[in-house]
Structure formats: C-alpha cells, structure tokens
Amino acid sequence: MLWAAVLLVAASAARAQNIRGRYVSRAQEDGTVYHTFPETLFEHPEAGDLTFDITYKSGQEQPLATINFTYEMERMTPADSVRFVSGDAVLAGRTEKIYVEPGKKRWKHRYGFRTEVAPLYRFFDERRTPEVWLYAGGETYRFRVKRSAWHAYAPVGFRIFEMIRANE
Amino acid sequence: MKKLLAFAFAAALCTGCVKSPLIGGAYTDVRDGFAVTGNAGSSKVGTAEAKGYVGLVALGDASIQAAARDAGITRIHHVDYQAKSYVGVYTIYTVIVYGE
C-alpha cells in the first residue's frame, strides 16, 4: 500500500513537471538562454530518425534561435539546407556542419542552422502534420513526423515557447 | 498485494544507482551544478546522456566533451547535470554544457 502511494505521488509529480524535464534555462547578463532537450519526432525510410534540439537566447537585437539536428546515412551525405514545416510556420536555413563521423554501419551527421524565433511560437501545433525537408548530397529527403510522438510532444513544445514569449 | 510487495522487493534488488546529491527510491528528478569556468557568457547549449536499465546494463557517453561537441562549443562557461531514475529500474544521467 505504501509503495502504491509513493508511486502515485511520484507519477503525479512527473505529470506536473511535464515541461520541466524537457528544457533548461539560464539567466545571464545579456539575456536568458533556453534549450530544449533533443527530441526524435521525424523519420525517413533511408535516413532513419532525425533528432533535433532548439537553443534560443532572449534579449538579443536579432531574435534568432539555433536548431541543431542529427541524422544518419549509409554514406557520407553533407547537408546544404533544411526546412522544418508545420502549416504556415516554416523554419528554414542553410546548414552549418558541427561534425560528421562514422558509426558501426552508418554515418552520423550533426548539423545546425539559425532561424527567426517567431515561427517557433506557431510550430508546435498538435493539429498540424509537420515535415522536415533536408537537402543533402544533391538530393531531397522528406522526413515525416511520427504521429504518436508528435501528439505527445507538440503540447510540450508549445508550452515551452509560450513561456519564452511570456518572458520576452 | 503480495505480488506488489514482491515486485517492489525485486525492483529494489535490481535498483541501479544514478549520480545525484539526492536519490529517491521510487522517483528521482534532480538537477545540480557540476562545474563553472572563468569564460564569459554563453549562447550555445549541448547535452549528452547515458542510460541504465534494471541496474544491469548502462550505456552512453555522458562526458563533458561529448556534450560540448554536440553543440559545437569550444569555450565552456559552466556545466550542469540532470539525474532521473524511475524506481531505479530506468535511469538517465544527462550532462548539460553551456558555452560559446
């Protein structure tokens, strides 16, 4: 009985903190840095899963967020640019390489790009079906969203950026 | 009830520890400071994590180097970590590096 009570308290605490464990923020002299932990919401039959995280520093003249993402390919496939699309919210930009390294079977690619923060306030809409278009190695790769993962994460992402906007 | 107690006992035996200043037997979600440097400011954040399963298997690279590399950080400002544990059966240790 005691264990059941303890587990119940722990479960309700976990629910109440549903965005707490999904991001970190740090106040600094010239603004606050927000960072969402990596999430794997998109997949492609060849390129596998795409994992991304978002970093944003408020209080800057140009409100730009950095989106870093990771994908794997059988061969080295350098990315040129990327588009994250969710309805009319488009996050796009030329990619900047962070690193590319071989794994056991596939090449791991880590890239990032900077984008305006305004579309991020609309991006995490649970009703939309977002996609990621990656332009790499002269080809276009369309990553589709994992529906269940999107339904679970979109409200969290929305709330995180709602909080950021409230603190701007 | 006996089954629940037996499960709890078995889980306790299999419990995997996670590095944290405070550890809850049923649930842990603790964030703590790790290191601070003299470098000024930070606009990049990188993370790296290791996971443990049933106290028997633990995998991952949760090094500061891995977290810094994840975000292309070359000057570290400070480092935090986050420890999570669910009944000790599933544990996640995450290193968070801030820098430029």
- Identify the overall geometry of chain B: elongated
H/E topology pattern of chain A: HEEEEEEEEEHEEH
User: How many strand units of chain B?
Assistant: 5
Strand content of chain A: over 45%
Describe the structure.
The complex is a heterodimer of chains A (168) and B (100). By secondary structure, chain A is α+β, with helices and mostly antiparallel strands. Chain A has one domain (2-166). Helices cover 23% and strands 49% of the residues of chain A. Chain A has helices spanning 2-16, 120-123, 147-166, and strands at residues 23-28, 31-36, 39-44, 48-57, 64-73, 79-86, 89-94, 96-102, 107-116, 131-136, 139-145. In chain A, strands 1, 2, 3, 4, 5, 6, 7, 8, 9, 10 and 11 form an eleven-stranded antiparallel beta sheet that branches. In chain A, strand 3 (39-44) and strand 4 (48-57) form a beta hairpin. The radius of gyration of chain A is 18 Å and the shape is globular. By secondary structure, chain B is of the alpha+beta class. Chain B has one domain. Chain B contains two helices and five strands. In chain B, strands 1-4-5-2-3 form a five-stranded antiparallel beta sheet. The model of chain B has no long low-confidence stretch (mean pLDDT 85). The interface between A and B is medium-sized, with 31 and 27 residues.
